[in-house]
Amino acid sequence: MAEARGRSGGGPGGEPGGRAGPGSGRGSGRRAGLLRGVRAYGLIAGMWIRSTLVYRTSFVLTTVGGVVVTGLDFVGIALMFSHVDVLAGHTLAEVAFLYGLSMLSFGIADLALGSMDRLGRRVRDGTLDTLLVRPVPVLAQVAADRFALRRVGRLLQGLCVLGWAVASLDVAWTVPKLLLVPVTVVSGAAIFCAVFVAGAAFQFVAQDASEVQNAFTYGGQTMLQYPPVVFAQELVRGVTFVLPLAFVNWVPASYVLGRPYPLDLPRWAAFAAPPVAVVCCALAGLVWRTGLRSYRSTGS
């Protein structure tokens, strides 16, 4: 089929006479594949959303229940501050700011890619094979599989806490600080998405590693709710230079709150979250492609 397509000379990026320009065919193919994947993701997710909204009462109850359950985390923090004035030099509003940034970023990623931990089950029972024969990127199919709209509750809860924190902080808000908040949320969501994808790719090898993946996603989000000075320096180095979760909230929040940077990072590091997110996503994509190529059907 590829040979016939090459003879026809009608592929994307082809030059007159059937020849493709240097790298043009590959670039056009990647863009077409990306668009096809986004479209497939939207169609599959839309199907699950429509099926969810058929039972609207159930959806509302499960969403409210999710808000209450996730909100208990912040209730615990608030109860702790009822006995102390500061935690490692941070006030309740400052900790709420850290909490809101991490929860909102994680809520976006969890809503978009929270189904990735099902990949190990598909590998074990062989149902991943049915996704491989479809003319749609496998990542889009796995990510949108059983799209759970109820996870929006986690996102809403994080947004509420972040809004309260921004209104309560004793901070001299400047334009860079105001712009840094939404940029940090988007970048943090991309970093968490990269962790979801890389963790799912690991399941091609481990097959039953969803809990390992959750340790870095849900566990990482829980850790980021608290100031970095609470943790050992070795752990802070690990989540800064190895798995850069620190750029989800710790580093940008240090600039906004006027706090010392973790590990004495330079001042410009507060604005490094977008490029860090790009690098994380690129590496996660590479890991995913490597894992998918290693797959040899069930039992491999």
TrEMBL record:
<feature type="transmembrane region" description="Helical">
    <location>
        <begin position="268"/>
        <end position="288"/>
    </location>
</feature>
<keyword id="KW-0812">Transmembrane</keyword>
<feature type="transmembrane region" description="Helical">
    <location>
        <begin position="59"/>
        <end position="84"/>
    </location>
</feature>
<feature type="region of interest" description="Disordered">
    <location>
        <begin position="1"/>
        <end position="31"/>
    </location>
</feature>
<feature type="compositionally biased region" description="Gly residues">
    <location>
        <begin position="7"/>
        <end position="27"/>
    </location>
</feature>
<feature type="transmembrane region" description="Helical">
    <location>
        <begin position="226"/>
        <end position="248"/>
    </location>
</feature>
<keyword id="KW-0472">Membrane</keyword>
<feature type="transmembrane region" description="Helical">
    <location>
        <begin position="155"/>
        <end position="173"/>
    </location>
</feature>
<dbReference type="InterPro" id="IPR010390">
    <property type="entry name" value="ABC-2_transporter-like"/>
</dbReference>
<feature type="transmembrane region" description="Helical">
    <location>
        <begin position="96"/>
        <end position="114"/>
    </location>
</feature>
<protein>
    <submittedName>
        <fullName>ABC-2 type transport system permease protein</fullName>
    </submittedName>
</protein>
<keyword id="KW-1133">Transmembrane helix</keyword>
<dbReference type="Pfam" id="PF06182">
    <property type="entry name" value="ABC2_membrane_6"/>
</dbReference>
<feature type="transmembrane region" description="Helical">
    <location>
        <begin position="179"/>
        <end position="205"/>
    </location>
</feature>
